[in-house]
Design goal:
Blueprint: E1 4-7, H1 13-24, E2 28-33, H2 37-47, E3 50-53, H3 59-73, E4 78-81, H4 96-114, H5 118-124, E5 127-132, H6 135-139, H7 145-165, E6 170-177, H8 183-186, H9 190-197, H10 208-219, E7 230-233
Parallel strand pairs: 1-2, 1-4, 2-3, 4-5, 5-6, 6-7
Helix pairs in contact: 1-10, 3-4, 4-7
This protein binds acetoacetyl-coenzyme A (CAA).
Residues 86, 88-90, 93, 134-136, 141-144, 147, 179, 184-185, 188-189, 192 line the site of acetoacetyl-coenzyme A.
GO molecular function, one term: acetoacetyl-CoA reductase activity
Enzyme class: oxidoreductase
Pfam family, one: adh_short_C2
Length: 240
């Protein structure tokens, strides 16, 4: 029987590449999105992957949405917490609203996504939790006090879940993408983007598929002994 995977923010950017890759590996995939109905409908039409709309920042919406996915497809055994946003500003200009928006989505959103799925994984004695963190959670980033804090926090979630889930056959791992060619990075001013690319030894932005390949490995049976780890896929920009 096909494994069931949930990918949050799974209809655009890195998430879309992850959804497609997992489908190609034989998973039954549900992709969530927050707002862009048109992009989601187009994605479903092109890929045949079901999309579900909810805000990961809301626990109630997440729990309700997850229950619907499980009613439609079956128990989720692979969850990819990928949904994330930026609200970049130098710290002296960052507003409490910008702080809370990013924390609610990128950090609390991971709790909201994994928590309703976790009891079922424990009961069935199998699970794969994969969280998409960021290079900027490892190294910090100018104008990203909010984002870097959440992405570092995501690594804390993964390392703790790894210890709690191990005996129940659940692994939890993180991927820290570097700068990947998505809308999020394209929104950075061109001059800044050029200076970022100059810091990447590989000399280019990463491709969403290069992150999706890491997810496919972590989701596979072959990765059973990887638990609590962080895969840094950043073209050599930063070593931990
Ligand atoms: N390092 C040092 N100084 C920097 C800097 C940097 N990385 N980026 C900007 N600055 C400087 C500017 O040169 C400017 O200096 P001056 O005042 O001397 O001219 C100052 O900081 C910025 O001041 P501004 O008033 O112009 O700032 P602003 O309010 O207009 O904000 C910004 C501009 C939001 C910082 C914009 O430059 C920006 O978006 N920077 C990119 C931040 C970034 O890298 N975000 C990552 C997004 S991708 C992502 O997050 C995905 C992932 O996981 C990797």
């Amino acid at each position: 029987m096909a494994r069931i995977a949930l990918v949050t923010g799974g209809s655009r950017g890195i998430g879309a590449a992850i959804s497609k890759k997992l489908k190609s590996q034989g998973f039954e995939v549900a992709a969530t999105y927050a707002g862009n109905d048109e992009a989601a409908a187009k994605f479903t039409e092109e890929t045949g992957i079901k999309t579900y709309k909810w805000n990961v920042a809301s626990y109630e919406e997440s729990a309700e949405g997850i229950a619907k996915v499980e009613a439609d497809l079956g128990p989720i055994d692979t969850v990819v917490a990928n949904a994330g946003i930026t609200r970049d500003a130098p710290f002296h200009k960052m507003t409490p609203e910008q702080w809370h928006q990013v924390v609610d989505t990128n950090l609390t959103g991971v709790f909201n996504t994994v928590h309703p799925i976790w009891p079922g994984m424990r009961e069935r004695k199998f699970g794969r939790v994969i969280v998409i963190s960021s290079i900027n959670g490892q190294k910090g980033q100018f104008a990203q006090v909010n984002y870097a804090a959440t992405k570092a926090g995501d690594l804390g979630i993964v390392k703790s879940l790894a210890q709690e889930g191990a005996r129940a056959g659940i692994t939890a791992n993180a991927i820290c993408p570097g700068y990947i060619a998505t809308d999020m990075v394209m929104a950075v001013p061109e001059k800044v983007r050029e200076s970022i690319i100059a810091q990447i030894p590989t000399g280019r932005l990463g491709e969403p598929e290069e992150i999706a390949n890491c997810v496919a490995f972590l989701a596979s049976d072959e990765a059973a002994f990887l638990n609590g780890s962080t895969i840094s896929a950043n073209g050599g920009q930063f070593f931990v």
